[in-house]
Fold:
Amino acid sequence: MENKIFQNFLEKKGLKLTKERIAVLKEVFSFHDHFEPERLYLRIKNSDSKASRASVYRTLNLLVESGLVEKVTRTEKSNVYEHTFGHSHHDHMICDRCGSITEFYSEKLENLQKEICRSNGFDGKSHTLEIRGYCNKCKKIK
Structure:
């Protein structure tokens, strides 16, 4: 399904679904956690599929633009991504020490955001909530 969505997106932009883009798409959707672009590139490099580092980064940007992938956060090394197609909305808690990312969902927060939008006459389409701090393991080390 994501192949067809990405292909339609590319066609609207006048681009083709190349074998390199297919390799990146396939590898992105093989991740079941958050990933950095360099990790994605190394997995592709070490597989039967080949794509240059530049192709990986360009395709990742196209996947974000298409709505199939989301940039979760920025670390000191690089951005962190996740594929979002087929997954329900969630937010993130990010440990500033070890970099661990914890996903969570809160109906109360979702309702509060909707109410804030409504009371301000704003038509909210999406949001990203990132809470930074220390996970249980790291706060003991502080």
